[in-house]
Specification:
By secondary structure, this protein is an all-alpha fold. The chain is 67% helix and 2% strand. It folds into two domains: 71 residues, Winged helix-like DNA-binding domain superfamily/Winged helix DNA-binding domain (Arc Repressor Mutant, subunit A); 149 residues, GntR ligand-binding domain-like (Four Helix Bundle (Hemerythrin (Met), subunit A), Up-down Bundle). It has ten helices and two strands.
């Protein structure tokens, strides 16, 4: 019985972590209903661990329960999204500064690799690759701060805005070139916390501006529904 309980708990945790990662990386879209059957098939599990994982994500406000008792991805209002990005600048800027002060050659190498993969995904117009590698770049950087306080707060914000991120890749007037990442890397290489922080703030502010403009588009509902047939859960 102990072994069965432990295995069940491991399966539930795996499902929870992959759903959580997918939300932060933008694999799900605002308003998308989370299908128990499809998710269970995707993960190769029964519906129970998926149901339990979804319930945990509702508790932390990453998902919401509808009137009909379905679970879906929330649709953030423009004012809420604006506030999230203002707080992101504060928290992620602080994490970037701390990461620079504790920087190692291994951190720079990991970030350089992630950014190269991101640029390759941008060149190939691979939306899912762009979102996944962008998240990996940022979280690798913030992990470098080694802060037990900052990371949970940053993760909470990414769970809330992550599902909107792909909209920033669909704006022809503001192509996403990840140029701010080069400023971040230069700040780390030159041991400049202020430059590293400026790079992160620039990145967050630019993306926030693009998303705010995207949410104001009259055909937003069509854009949102066009992407939700593909699911990607990261690694």
């Amino acid at each position: 019985m102990v072994v069965v309980t432990r295995v069940r708990g491991q399966v539930q945790e795996m499902v929870f972590q992959r759903l959580r990662s997918g939300l932060m990386a933008g694999a799900f879209t605002p308003g998308q209903v989370m299908s128990l059957r499809k998710l269970a098939e995707q993960f190769g599990t029964s519906a129970m661990p998926v149901r339990e994982a979804l319930a945990r994500l509702v508790v932390v406000n990453a998902l919401e329960e509808t009137v009909g008792h379905s679970v879906c991805v929330p649709r953030p209002t423009p004012s809420r999204l604006e506030e999230i990005f203002e707080v992101r600048e504060l928290l992620e800027g602080r994490a970037a500064s701390e990461a620079c002060r504790k920087c190692t050659p291994e951190l720079i190498a990991s970030l350089t690799h992630a950014n190269e993969e991101l640029l390759a995904a941008i060149a190939a117009r691979n939306l899912q690759g762009c979102l996944s590698w962008n998240q990996r770049f940022h979280f690798t950087l913030y992990d470098g701060a080694d802060s037990e306080v900052l990371m949970p707060l940053i993760e909470s914000l990414w769970l809330q805005f992550g599902p909107t991120m792909y909209l920033s890749l669909l704006q022809p007037e503001t192509p996403w070139d990840a140029s701010a990442h080069l400023d971040i890397l230069e700040g780390l290489r030159t041991n400049s916390p202020s430059m590293t922080k400026r790079g992160v703030v620039k990145d967050v502010r630019t993306t926030g501006g693009v998303l705010m403009r995207a949410l104001a588009r009259p055909n937003l509902s069509n854009v949102l529904s066009s992407f939700s047939n593909e699911l990607y859960f990261g690694r």
